């Protein structure tokens, strides 16, 4: 009797296990079938229904406008303008006539109708002549050589009596500027040396030098100033 009861119990346990396993399989089958029907129902919906359902708002929802700031339009890039420095146009040099000889630069003397010797503010007209003209005490007498100007070559000799205002001819300091103006030019001379002899009159050989020699009596002798043209 005990063995029959044990066998019965074992058989019940086996049946229960089989039923349990079958229940699991049946539940799984029912689950798969339900999911298949849901997929078919979703695929049967029309696009309009889908859009309608997606766009439909719930009674409690409200539309919130989007706060979108306008995007500025793109500005085309342009290179910065660089201002070029202004340039003044230099006028073309005009043709001018060659100016006639004017006054000397250092002294400012202008040409004169007659030949005139200037020593500072003192001046005398130059005339070519002899002893008679020298004795007249009016002119600086051109005793020998060419008329002094800016174009002559050779030694010009001007003489005058000391008592007629020509004593300065024998005593000009070295470096003194003497100007001779004339019809064609203005010439400048500078004193560079002196000589004194113990006689008055006689031959002048060897006593004249430079571009201009000025001669006058000096006491009982005769004095000479020697000048070289500088302009």
Automatic annotation (TrEMBL):
Cited Gene3D superfamilies: Sortase (2.40.260.10)
Stretch list, region Disordered: 41-105
Biased composition regions of type Low complexity, renumbered to the chain = 70-83
Q: Highest taxon of the source?
A: Bacteria
| Protein name stated in the entry | Sortase
Which species?
Streptomyces spiralis
Recite the lineage of the species.
Bacteria, Bacillati, Actinomycetota, Actinomycetes, Kitasatosporales
